[in-house]
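From the pipeline queue, job 12 of 40. The input is one protein chain; the requested action is below.

Action: predict structure.
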Amino acid sequence: MPNAPRITLAVLIVALLAAALWLLRPDSEEKDPARPPVSGAYEALVMWTMQRAYPGTELPSEGVAEALAVRRALEAESRGGGDEVWESIGPDNVGGRTLALAINPERPESVWAGSAGGGLWRSYTGGTGAAWERVPTGFGVTAASAVVIAPGDTSTVYLGTGEVYRYGESTGGVVYRPTRGSYGMGILKSTDGGATWATSLDWSRNQERGVQMLRFDPTDDATLWAATTEGIYVTRDAGATWTLSLDVVMGTDVTVNPANPDDVLAVCGNQESPDYGFYRTTDGGETWAQVTDGLPTSYIGKVLLSRHPTEAETIYASIGDGIFSSGGTQTYLVRTTDGGDSWETLSTFDYARFQGWFAHYVGVNPLDPDVLYLGGVNMYRSNGEGQNITQLNPIHADNHAVAFHPTDPDIVYLAGDGGVYRTTDGGDTIENLEFGMRTAQFYNGTSVSADGAYMLGGLQDNGTVRMEEGEAWDHVFGGDGTWTAIDPSDPDIAYASSQGLNLRRSSDGGFSFTAGIAPPFSDETAFIAPYAVAPSAPSTLYAGRSIVYKSTNRGTNWTATNGGANVDPNGNPPLALAVSPVDEDVVYVATAPLLRDPVDNPGPPRLFVTRDGGDAWTDITLGLPDRFVVDIAVHPTDDATVWVTMGGFGTPHVFKTEDSGATWTDVTGPLPDAPTNAVAFDPLAPDTVFVGNDVGVFVTRDAGATWEAFSDGLPEAVLVMDLVAAGDRTLRVATHGNGVYRRPLVLNPVAAESDTAPTGFRLSQNAPNPFRDRTTLGFELDRPGDVRLEVFDAAGRRVATLAEGRRAAGSHTVAWDADGLASGVYFARLSAGGSVATRQMTLVR
């Protein structure tokens, strides 16, 4: 056991207070070009953890394992519920954060990739030709953080899980969390090339743990080393048993001397975890000694290793030293030529920058050891002395892993926040291999146009993307993509945003966002900040900083609500926001605490409502558990009826009110105890409500009295971030790691048959929609014939006949005056020549 002095709690608190204060600066992106910005990944991962750990400081040990068991039980009870399943609709061309790579040494066209939120993936074509496939394990893996192939038997594969960058509780109280990206369940093993999997190191009931790196003993397939959040583990019986060899938390890498497998070097630490540093054993892990000669005296990031292929005593290490702009301004590239006893610094060129805790590495080309690859915020190539550092382009920022072709030194695979890349000429040119790897990490706030023709969504570190039809999505706005919105009356008007409510408007259907319309700054803004269009008055927008702002001209001008005061008396900013579908003055907003000085009292999460357009807000939190309200859904015709979903563990997760929040009813029933991130009504049948959580999707068809699983076609576990019922009668689910799925909804209550119109037969969406008194519908016929155009209410009762009899071929328009009818959802139904088409319309008063 090492005896290195531990960093005192006082020092940690001082460091973390400085970090927190830096994060709370009005502008989270540092403008001084000489200093790097705050890590957006840091803010995103802290928020991910906060809404799941609150009110504690760490995730509970067993939450996801139990939630997965409940999902499976509900799926068993729900079988036979229909033939429709979820269909993946991409993006095929936008890869998500990728943490690990492995190449089959016998068949190098077989490439494995571990994603941060979307599980394990494999290509049999070297990653080309959209040939990636997700590898199901049967264990609900989301974060595939390490993958290795046994050199002596390439049908044996080990998979490490869990993405964790900080260890345990950082300070007292509930205001600061470890940075992490998904759950862990230990190490899995396959002996048949990934067809089936079994538990090797079972941490399924320790979801807060993570496996950072796996390395084989090059001389013995039965010996495998694991760098984990709990220290350095080793197995000598092919994974049947594991032993904690080095008890220093936050192990990040380990390397074995092929000439002497008892000689092992390990590195531990990240974000100043206790006893961080370099450790060496020469007796197979019986004893370890900390190494300091020639190494930096302090650093705040993690360390990655790469051993020289022919000179076994030569090892390179990449040492990160940056989290915030106020942190280190160098990345240490160091080398030892005596197995790790002494080191020299080759370069302090800051390629990791503010991502020194998150995204960097050094890789020595095994067939050309004079070539080093340095991954960081950007990608670089250097010579074996760490000099002549040249940036490689094009490649997405934030790099996590490298893998080398076993026989061709010019072929190198690279992984990062943009997916997988490859060079076939030693780095001179780089190609993107993400096509077909559906690992995009969506946030909430996705949107679909009223007719279902196109969709917008924001991605972790991959901007905002647009999907119209097909599997390729367009990048339309940069940064960390966050909330989006589409005008329900005019699909050419759309909105996108990046971190901190950097809001833009489009006038060409979301292809470009040129008008900067961010609301004024106020004290606090969530990293993923909400805003919404009022469906009944689409020129009206609400956007949430600590002050909620309102615009009545599509964001050109903004007015502070609540008399200019924070909506939450504690100053906590909104995390979720929803506007009534029938009244633009009715808005619900949920607030949550962010990073701050732990001696302050940030106050609990809260939920508020305004019924007068923001002049006054009423706290309606009473009756809800002390958890983040992550999503809000307002009934399509009755805005006093609202459903909310809760984050965290250990409480019910789904609540509804029928009196604008005066009272709440728990309708969680048998649903899993897991963070529940999304809720959506079926607008045609509002007793049907869908919820999504960290393991899947579920549905009630009787307003919460009973629940069924609704995850057929989804992965074994999937981080559901958003649900949207689209106007084309599909439900869209946006996931944080597996892209977007689509599933047909039950047919409209006014027609038992689906739209079966041939080409040329078309019923257009009414305009305006929503409408107050009068609206216009259009339809097209490809040949003359008898038609009938009727309007039905949500109960299926016919309320109007707008056209009946023979019509000529061509385009036709019909106006509908809804005088005397109540606000609500109505359906236009056109029948002609045995074909039927329907459109949903919303009448507001």
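Job complete. Residues 775 and 816 are 5 Å apart (CA to CA).
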